[in-house]
């Protein structure tokens, strides 16, 4: 007998893209969710299933797929949408981490993280890695985590460092704050919760090798995934981060490397040999002139990359442009450099199962698999759209406006194109007030500020 308190949800008659070879894809299928997990996926609804007390979502004409996994984002920047639209990496460093980050209060960070996570949910992202490097005080860390929890998203909180002065992020000799141990012990001790913990490490491109060694040791002592930037275009070249970490015997399967554009092929092979992961953020990487995304070189080396939004200061808060940008760049790169080609099925997997694997969450999410957590997105094609290739549409033809329904751990967070239980006007007021405070305290002027009122 089923527990009467268990939430049951039936998504019926959708086109199912499972991202699970054992389940396959269904032109028309139904999914039964019990509690937090997917209980069954069937091509034809079994009339013997007891539907008493089941909430039914009619998904006919919609595409069901795993919730997207944003494997790298600085969520604290959600009030700064397009505030650095035309910057390269050096200008971004000067304006955003250099000028705006130091003035964040704990309240600003709570608002930014909650609303940034809701922006992600609205775009069909059910799992997000929050690479948080505005942890000026313990209260900032508490506020960041509270914002994630209050949103209802599945999140990995990457404990970073204060961003109050360059000494924390430029050839830093300062180790990760000891407060990381308090957060792990008191706030994020469980790896089974909706919000879990990782380390957002500076690595050899932002700190000395001695500090990198120390910080990795702390993360491993706390059993944390370790994420760091590596191969950040021309900026990363002089540091030879992977070579130095390899020589120091610091690499391992618990490391996730972000970007990788300027890494050598040998360095990427070393990531593969160590069991590590790579995450690409294509729109930012190309816009800020890092170079071609490393996705196809990673594939050639045996590393399946995840995708991330990175920063909304220069791109939108969804993975749709990241999937399209990855494919487009790979096609041009194949033409110019002879690198491997990829297709829409590849980039859809990058944005789901591969992203989950880069966060050590592939046993929980990233595919529609009975027994896994029910992290599900329903895409509704816009009017006057004929769906001839559901995979191609999901990867290249959809947008945030196509996201009809979002389910996280069995709970419906968006339905009928609207976030559930959210006062949008009040959140908009909070977001704009937060932005105004940040701009006033920092003296920041957004681009094109001379635009007439």
Automatic annotation (TrEMBL):
Hydrolase found in the keyword field: yes
Signal peptide: none
This protein's record includes keyword Hydrolase: yes
Domain Amidohydrolase-related, residue spans: 63-412
GO molecular function, one term: hydrolase activity, acting on carbon-nitrogen (but not peptide) bonds
Alphabetical keyword list: Hydrolase
Xref: Pfam families: Amidohydro_1
Family as reported in the entry's similarity comment: Belongs to the metallo-dependent hydrolases superfamily. ATZ/TRZ family.
PANTHER family recorded: AMINOHYDROLASE SSNA-RELATED, CHLOROHYDROLASE FAMILY PROTEIN
Protein name: Amidohydrolase family protein
Native source organism of the sequence: Denitrobaculum tricleocarpae
């Amino acid at each position: 007998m089923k527990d009467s308190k268990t939430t049951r949800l039936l998504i019926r008659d959708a086109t199912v893209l499972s991202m699970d070879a054992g389940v396959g894809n269904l032109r028309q299928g139904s999914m039964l969710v019990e509690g937090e997990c997917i209980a069954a996926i069937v091509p034809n609804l079994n009339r013997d299933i007891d539907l008493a007390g089941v909430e039914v979502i009619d998904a006919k004409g919609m595409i069901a797929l795993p919730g997207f996994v944003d494997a790298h984002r600085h969520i604290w920047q959600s009030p700064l949408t397009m505030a650095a639209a035309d910057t390269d990496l050096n200008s971004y460093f000067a304006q955003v981490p250099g000028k705006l980050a130091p003035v964040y209060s704990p309240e600003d960070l709570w608002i930014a993280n909650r609303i940034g996570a809701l922006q992600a949910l609205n775009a069909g992202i059910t799992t997000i890695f929050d690479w948080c490097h505005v942890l000026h005080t313990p209260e900032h860390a508490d506020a960041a985590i509270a914002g994630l929890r209050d949103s209802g998203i599945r999140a990995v909180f990457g404990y970073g460092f204060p961003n109050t002065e360059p000494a924390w992020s430029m050839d830093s000799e300062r180790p990760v704050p000891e407060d990381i141990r308090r957060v792990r012990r008191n706030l994020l001790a469980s790896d089974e919760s909706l919000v879990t913990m990782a380390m957002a490490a500076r690595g050899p491109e932002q700190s000395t090798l001695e500090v990198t060694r120390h910080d990795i040791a702390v993360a491993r002592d706390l059993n944390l995934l370790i994420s760091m930037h590596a191969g950040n275009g021309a900026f990363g070249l002089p540091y030879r981060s992977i070579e130095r970490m390899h020589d120091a015997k610091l690499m391992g399967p618990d490391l996730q490397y972000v970007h990788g554009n300027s890494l050598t092929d040998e360095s990427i092979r070393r990531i593969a040999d160590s069991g590590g992961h790579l995450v690409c953020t294509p729109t930012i990487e190309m816009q800020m002139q890092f170079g071609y995304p490393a996705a196809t070189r990673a594939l050639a080396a045996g590393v399946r990359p995840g995708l991330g939004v990175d920063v909304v200061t220069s791109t939108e808060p969804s993975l749709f442009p990241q999937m399209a940008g990855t494919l487009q760049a790979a096609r041009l790169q194949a033409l110019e450099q002879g690198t491997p080609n990829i297709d829409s099925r590849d980039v859809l997997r990058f944005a789901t199962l591969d992203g989950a694997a880069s966060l050590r969450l592939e046993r929980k999410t990233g595919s529609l698999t009975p027994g896994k957590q029910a992290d599900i997105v329903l895409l509704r094609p816009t009017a006057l759209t004929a769906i001839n290739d559901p995979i191609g549409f999901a990867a290249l033809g959809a947008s945030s406006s196509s996201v009809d329904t979002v389910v996280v751990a069995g709970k419906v967070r968006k339905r009928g194109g609207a976030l559930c239980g959210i006062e949008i006007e009040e959140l908009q007021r909070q977001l704009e007030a937060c932005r105004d405070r940040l701009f006033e305290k920092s003296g920041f002027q957004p681009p094109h500020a001379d635009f007439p009122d």
